[in-house]
Design a protein that fits this description.
about 475 residues, 2 domains, nine-stranded mixed sheet, Rossmann fold, six-stranded parallel sheet
């Protein structure tokens, strides 16, 4: 089966979050299921720098204001189609905004172009290539499905994966005339959304199937509390909605051979984690003692519950833990965490920014990872934690609820617990969960049992890729 994936990010070339990890790992896992994937990605500077440019497979003399070409490349086992459109993607900054984090004002145009090209390829624009199915990721790629629906590729099966419903790609109605869609597309069952144009909404309307990145999140987004204004549409399409939990690349995330660690380890050699723990303590300026060392690796945002964490830091330190915090985001939250590090010198360490290698080291050296998200479609850091013996302490929501077995009395007695769950948005519940973790940590045999149980969990893409492959085949069968 030939699948065209359309994605705004793909690891290891361009990453702002979990979407990139999924887009990079899923095609490789699908190959083992007999599915061949070509991924269309924008030609950001980091992408062009990492690939060898080849002959153009297709040219666009005028694609939303400039020339563009599509060329093929192969990187890290990924079969790519790169949209090289310098006027849209060759910019200093991130994929969606400038160096200060402000969104590019023409994001609507940039990702309309990506969608247009995706639909063009789906209809056979590249000689000798006609995909059996198109799989798009999030709002930046969602307009692909609208162009397919109103164009020659309307009979091609399609899937849209919602990684986070909070990001929807909403723009004013004034852009519609420049999208190149027929007039009837500006309707309730088309791209129109609260009087404007909704890219994600358009994709949800047009897709043959909708997937989210965990079963619980698939249920949550059908409610007003989590549906972000789209719960009605999603509920109408419930028969086409599938929750498939993410996996991780277990070759990249392998504690036995991870070059970012001071010492590799396995479930049988957990004592080797001590060297990594010492390195984390040094990097974050923490005292060296026997108290539990917890970490936070996150975007510092309201969604991630970092305000709840910040409000409880004094209590957490008083309870006896040390904290190593890595992340960036909201300036006020960054300031609150830096202030906590100054207030609790040697007990709290904060590094603002993102460092892939450091995140691996923290997972490999810390005792537990705190994830206090208000909502979390899937989450990957808890999966990395399980893999690395870094016990997850998570809010009971979305994929966090689906992937962590709470250390209640029965689970501990049965030896199946892998972490701790607490109610989202509650500082008291977070503190209580941490105190529960501290109590179990005091029994090192019970703690190591939890670590080993987590490390046994299948967090790979194997089962999830099989579910995607089955979904693809069912959709292709409908077409024929």
């Amino acid at each position: 089966m030939q699948v065209l994936a359309v994605t705004p990010e793909i690891f290891p070339l361009i990453k702002t979050g979990g979407l990139a990890d999924v887009a990079g790992a899923l095609p490789i896992a699908l190959a083992r299921q007999g599915v061949s994937t070509r991924s269309l990605v924008p030609g950001y500077p980091t992408v062009l720098k990492a690939v060898k440019k080849t002959a153009a497979l297709h040219r666009y003399p005028a694609l939303h204001g400039g020339e563009a070409v599509v060329f093929a490349a192969t990187v890290a086992g990924l079969d790519l189609l790169v949209l090289d459109a310098p006027h849209l993607f060759d910019r200093v900054g991130g994929p969606y905004g400038d160096t200060t984090g402000v969104d590019w004002p023409d994001n609507w145009r940039r990702f309309a172009a990506l969608g247009f090209v995706g639909a063009d390829i789906a209809s056979g624009a590249i000689s000798g290539y006609h995909p059996d199915l198109v799989h798009v990721h999030d709002w930046q790629a969602a307009l692909t499905l609208a162009y397919m629906r109103y164009g020659p590729a309307q009979a091609t099966p399609s899937v849209i994966t919602v990684h986070n419903l909070a990001f929807q790609g909403r723009f004013g109605a004034g852009i519609f005339g420049e999208l190149g869609l027929p007039a009837q597309a500006m309707s309730l069952d088309g791209v129109e959304y609260y009087g404007g144009v909704g890219y994600l909404k358009a994709g949800l309307q047009a897709a043959w199937a909708i997937t989210t990145v965990s079963p619980t999140y698939a249920d949550e987004i059908r409610t007003p509390a989590f549906g972000m204004g789209l719960d009605g549409l999603i509920s109408m399409r419930v028969d086409d909605l599938h929750g498939i939990v993410n996996g991780i690349d277990v070759e990249v995330w392998n504690p036995a051979v991870d070059a970012s660690l001071k010492a590799g380890f396995s479930a049988k050699t957990l004592k080797n984690r001590t060297a990594n723990r010492a390195s984390v303590e040094e990097r974050f300026g923490l005292v060296h003692d026997d108290s539990p060392l917890f970490c936070v690796i996150s975007r510092l945002t309201w969604q991630k519950g970092i305000d709840v964490l910040a409000s409880t830091l004094d209590e957490l330190v008083a309870a006896g833990v040390r904290l190593a915090i890595l992340g960036s985001g909201d300036a006020a939250l960054e300031g609150a965490l830096l202030a906590a590090a100054a207030r609790h010198s040697g007990r709290v360490g904060t590094v603002i920014g993102y460092d892939e290698g450091l995140s691996h080291l923290m997972q490999g050296g810390c005792d537990a990872i705190l994830i206090p998200s208000r909502f979390e479609p899937c989450g990957l850091t808890q999966l990395y934690g399980l893999r690395y013996g870094c016990v997850p302490i998570v809010a009971r929501t979305g994929g966090l609820a689906d992937t962590v077995i709470d250390a209640n009395e029965a689970a501990l007695a049965a030896g199946v617990a892998t972490g701790f769950q607490f109610m989202p948005e509650s500082g008291d519940a977070l503190v209580h969960a941490v105190k529960r973790a501290i109590a179990v940590y005091a029994d090192r045999t019970a703690w190591s049992t939890m670590q080993k149980q987590g490390m046994k969990a299948d967090v790979s893409w194997h089962r999830s890729a099989a579910k995607y492959a089955d979904l693809y085949r069912s959709l292709v069968a409908r077409r024929t």
